[in-house]
Amino acid sequence: MAAPKSGLGDMADVKEAIKNQGEIVRKLKQEKADPEKISEEVQKLLSLKEQLGDARPQKFQLKTPKGTRDYNPRQMAIREGVFKTIINCFKRHGAETIDTPVFELKETLTGKYGEDAKLIYDLADQGGEILSLRYDLTVPFARYLAMNKINTIKRYHIAKVYRRDNPAMTRGRYREFYQCDFDIAGQYDLMIPDAECVKIVAEILSELNVGDFIIKLNTRLLLDGMFAVCGVPEDKFRTICSAVDKLDKTFWEDVRSEMVDEKGLAPEVADRIGEYVRLNGQLELVDQLMQDEQMMKNKMARQGLEEMKLLLTYCQLFGVLDKVSFDLSLARGLDYYTGVIYEAILTTEKVQSDGGDKNEPVGVGSVAGGGRYDGLVGMFDPKGKKVPCVGVSIGIERLFSIMEAKAEAAEGKVRTTETQVYVASGQKNMLEERMKLCNLLWEGGIKTELSYKKNPKLLNQFQYAEEHGIPFLAIIGEQELKDGVVKVRNTSTREEETFPRDKLLEEIRTRVGPS
Amino acid sequence: MAAPKSGLGDMADVKEAIKNQGEIVRKLKQEKADPEKISEEVQKLLSLKEQLGDARPQKFQLKTPKGTRDYNPRQMAIREGVFKTIINCFKRHGAETIDTPVFELKETLTGKYGEDAKLIYDLADQGGEILSLRYDLTVPFARYLAMNKINTIKRYHIAKVYRRDNPAMTRGRYREFYQCDFDIAGQYDLMIPDAECVKIVAEILSELNVGDFIIKLNTRLLLDGMFAVCGVPEDKFRTICSAVDKLDKTFWEDVRSEMVDEKGLAPEVADRIGEYVRLNGQLELVDQLMQDEQMMKNKMARQGLEEMKLLLTYCQLFGVLDKVSFDLSLARGLDYYTGVIYEAILTTEKVQSDGGDKNEPVGVGSVAGGGRYDGLVGMFDPKGKKVPCVGVSIGIERLFSIMEAKAEAAEGKVRTTETQVYVASGQKNMLEERMKLCNLLWEGGIKTELSYKKNPKLLNQFQYAEEHGIPFLAIIGEQELKDGVVKVRNTSTREEETFPRDKLLEEIRTRVGPS
C-alpha cells in the first residue's frame, strides 16, 4: 500500500530525494558494487517513490532472505561435483549416512553453543512445540545417538545449517550454508579414529584441488595443561581458551590485552601463554615439549603430549604428515570439545580485492574443523551415559566459492544438463514423428530432448544443441521416414551418418558410452 | 525443574495416577501402538512423576519435532535409491537443477496458497526480515524466474518443504517432507511440455515398481466450462472447484451437500455437475463430450476438450496412454492452476490395518500431482510479465514408505555402506601395519575399513565383515609381512588367496569391479 500523500511543499523535497537516491543507485550499479548494497539502496529508492504516491508500488520484494542465495544450474553443477568428491571419500572410509529434521525442539539446542546461542534461528510460536533451526549437524547427531541408544556408528551427514550471523557472502559466509560432517562414535583405542578424521580432510582437500592447505592439530588436554603450567586459575580455562581461539583472526597483542585487561589475567601469566602459543611443528615439537619439566609435571599436559605423539605417528602411517601442523595456538571456540581438535586452512588462497572483508587478515581460510567431544551425547542421555565421538566438518561454502571462481576464470562451459541426443527435423508437420522418435530414445535410456514448437526451424534446433553442448542430433524428415532411417549428426564435427531406425539405439549407445 | 511437592493426601492420588498412567503406557507398548501416541502418554507419565518430586526429571525430551523424523542409514540407502531413479529420469528429459533457500520472505508466500496459508511455518521475529519456511517448491521457482528474468528453463528441484498439517506418519504424511519437482517454463506450442510431464510421472512410477497406478488428467478450462454449462455463477467457480476436489477423499453425497447447503448452489445445478464428474475415460470420452451441444457452445469447454484431445494424442505417441485417465472429477486444490491438471494415484496400494487413518477411503494414494500455472510468475514480476509454466511434483514420502515396507517384507539386507575390503590381522601389535595397508588401499581408491582397536580378535573382524556385507578381507600377520604378501579372504565363500603386496590393488580391483 502506498503511504498517504504528503503536502505539496514536502513533495518537492521527496522528488529531490528520489533524484539523489537514483544517482546513488546508478553509481553503485556502474561500479558493480556488492549486490546486497545495491539492493538496499534500491529499496530506499522504492520507498521514497512510494511516498510520492505515483510510483506503481512493487508488489513483492524480489529477493532471497538476507545471507541466503539461490543456486543457479551452473552453480548446482559445480556443487554436485564437490559433493560427489566428498561423498566418495566418506564412503571410501566406510561411512553410512543419516538425516535429521531441519528444526529441533529448542531445548535440544539450548546450552550447547555458549555465546553463539544468540545466532540460532527460532521458529514463531504458532501453538505446539517451540522449535529452532539446526545450528550445526553435531548436536542433532548427538541427540540421534542418545535417542536411538546407538553406541557405535561411523556416519556422514551433508545438510544445510542456519546461523543469524553477519553474512559476508563474497567470502562464502552465509546464513544458510552446507556442512559436510563425518563422525566416528564408539569406545575405541586412543587416536585411531582421530587420525582417520585427519586423513579424510587431507584426502578431500587434495582431491578438490583448491591449492595448498595445512591441517592444524592440538588437544584440549594439552591446552588446559599449558594453562595450568602458566598459572591460569582453573575457572578461567575456558574463557582464556576462547581468547586464544582468536589468534587466527587477530594479533597476539590484542589477545594478550583481552586476557589481561578484560579477563583479569596477570600479565606475566599471559606472557607465559604467549611463549607457548607461538610454537608449532610436528614430532620434534612434541619431543621438545617433553623436555619441558614444568609441562611434564602436569598430568593433563603430559597426557596431551602423549596423545599428540600418537596422533602424529598415525598421520605418518596414513601418509599425511606433510599436511599437518601441531599448533599450540589452535583452540577452537566450541565448549564441547574434550580432546583432539582440528582446523584446516588454505594457505595459497588470495583474498579478492573486491570481495574481502577488510577486517580479516589476508590468507585466513578455514575450510574444515572438528575435534573430539566425548561428553555431548551424555548430555542427552537420561542417565548421562557417554558415547565418545570424534569428527570433522567440511565448510563447503568457501570451497564452492573457490571452485566457482576457478570455473569463471577457466571460461570453460559448465554443462548443466546431460542430454545426449536432440531430436530434430527441418520439415513441417513432423512434431508427432519427433515425439515418437524421442520416446524410442527415452525408452532406450538415452537422455533426449526435442523442441516444444510444432514447426521449429532446423537452424534453431542446431543452435540449441550447440549452446547446450548436446553431442548428437537425430534428424528425421519425409525421406528418412520412408526409408526407415535416422540421420545422426555430430554437433561438434558436423559429420552426419544415416542408420536404420532399428539400429539407432545401438549406434547412439556406442557413441555416448554407458550412462 | 520439579514442581513443588504436594501435600501427603494429594501424593497418594498422584501415585495412583502414576500407576494408572504406567498401565496405559505399558499397554500401548505391548500393542506396538503409534509411537507418537506412546510418546505423548510417556510425557504425561513423566510429568506426573515430576509432581511426585522424586523422579529424576528427564533433562531433555528426546524426540524430533512433531510430524518429523530422522532417517537412519537403512532408510537413507532406500531414499538414495529412489532419488537416483527420479533424478535419472529428470536428466533423461534434459532438465537442469536449481536450489533455493529453505525460507523465503513471508510476503513471497503470501496470497499464493488460499486457505492452506494457515499451514505455513513462520520464523520468529528476531529483528530483520520476516521469514517463513517454504510450503512448496513451485512458488520459490516462480520467484526465482521473475527475479532472474528467466523466460525458458526446464528444471528439477528436490528439497524438503514444510506444512503445519495434521501428520499421519504411518501413511507417509509428515510436516517436513521431500518434494521432487519437474517444471517446464516457456512459451511453447500447446500441450507438448504438458505431455512430457505425464510421461515423466509414468516413467518414474513404473521404474520405482510400486504397483499399478493411474494418472488422472483434466483441465481447468474444461472444469470452468462445465460449471458454466451446469449453471454455476462465475463467482462460485473456485469454491465449487474446491468442493469437487474432495471427491477423491469423500463421497458424492457429501460433496453435493457442501455445494448446496454450505455454498448455496441450486440442487439441480449440483445434480448436473454430479452427472459430469462421474465420467472418466480417454479419447472416446472426449468424442462423447464433443457431441454434447451444451458443452460445445461454451468456449472454455470447447477449448478444454480440444486441449485434452491433443494431450491424449501426445500421451499415445509417448507410449503412456494406458496409464492415463481423463477424469472430470479431478479438480486440484490450488488456485494458481490455469490449464491442464494431473494427479497420479496408486491403484493396488493396500491401507495397512494398523496404520491407516480410518477417515480416508481405502485405496487413496496420491503420489504425484501438478498442472499448468501460466499466471504465477507474473504475480512476482513488477510489470506483471507472464511466463507460462507446467510441472509435476512427485510426493516421495509415500513412495519411501512403500519401498521401506517392501524392504522390510523382503527381509533382505540393505547395505548401508559400500566398503569393499576390511583390513584385518589375528596377531598382536599389528595396528601400524594394518593402518599402512589400509592407507595403500585408500590411495588406490578401494573402499576400506579397519578395526579401531589396537589388538582386535580375528573372529570379531570376520564377524564385522560378514555383518556389514563387506565382500573381502585383507589379512596380514608376521609371516605375510616377511613374505611381502597379503592374504585375501572372500567373506561369503571363505576362500583365501595370497597375493604379492604390489599386486594387491590390481587383484582387488578385478574382484570388486569399477567403483
UniProtKB/TrEMBL annotation, chains A, B:
One GO biological process term: histidyl-tRNA aminoacylation
InterPro entries, per the entry: aa-tRNA-synth_II, aa-tRNA-synth_II/BPL/LPL, Anticodon-bd, Anticodon-bd_dom_sf, His-tRNA-ligase, HisRS-like_core, HisRS/HisZ, HisRS_anticodon
Span of domain WHEP-TRS: 10-66
Domain annotation Aminoacyl-transfer RNA synthetases class-II family profile: ranges: 44-403
Signal peptide range: none
Keywords: Aminoacyl-tRNA synthetase, ATP-binding, Cytoplasm, Ligase, Nucleotide-binding, Protein biosynthesis
A Gene Ontology cellular-component term: cytoplasm
SMART domains per the UniProt record, alphabetical: WHEP-TRS
Catalytic reaction(s) noted: tRNA(His) + L-histidine + ATP = L-histidyl-tRNA(His) + AMP + diphosphate + H(+)
EC annotation from Swiss-Prot or TrEMBL: 6.1.1.21
NCBIfam families documented for this protein: hisS (TIGR00442)
Assigned protein family: Belongs to the class-II aminoacyl-tRNA synthetase family.
Protein name as it appears in the record: histidine--tRNA ligase
Organism: Branchiostoma floridae
Gene: LOC118420314
